[in-house]
Specification:
alpha/beta, Rossmann fold, six-stranded mixed beta sheet, four-stranded antiparallel beta sheet
Amino acid sequence: MNIKFHIQDLNFYFNNEKVLKGINFEIPANKILGIIGPSGSGKTTFLRALNRMNDLETGTRIEGKILLDGEDIYNSDYDVVALRKKVGMVFAMPVPLPMSIYENVVYGPRLSGNNDKTRLDELVEKSLTAAYLWDEVKDRLKTSGMRLSGGQQQRLCLARVLAMEPEAILLDEPSSGLDPISTAKIEDALTELKKEYTIILVTNNTKQAARVADNTAFFLMGELIEIGSTGQIFTTPGKIETNDYITGRFG
């Protein structure tokens, strides 16, 4: 099995508060890892550690290692800009740029110096298709991305990440504000995308994790309580806390 991320003895601090405690596990390539747990359990902090988004906050400190393809991303000489191209992120609230649908998708590639119109046209179609949005917007690519519905905006943000041709995609509750139809389209897209990408999905919706994740990790109060195949976690969890959470006793 090809391992994309190795997390080794990971501790994470915000202003001396220990937010992640002794995390150890591996994330295989071309699978969807669902991360579940109640609010405040460290899910988003962990997710943002995978592409060093936490570095943008003051007062953060890390111990341990996160290896991406065998390289420690927290080494002082690791290229953080290259890391964030390789490991893209979709946030809970869609944030389309105030420009056309087309320009939203090509924004990243243009910043990276790609101005070949033929290549950009191909990227737009490929990325929007992979995000299950092309058929809905192909005749209005010059329309502002701000005029799309919430569900369409979230898929546009996913397309924007895909246009950078990453290797892994991080999603932080991507369908938390969406209707069931939009949520289903996001989930369908993720199921297809794992053929080419490693996907890590933080979700407060345990049913969503059960539907789309190959493996599921349960976090509680900054600790990884249990990780296993999604079928095992949801049918025969090994820890009482996991069982209590997925059966709705708390959370």
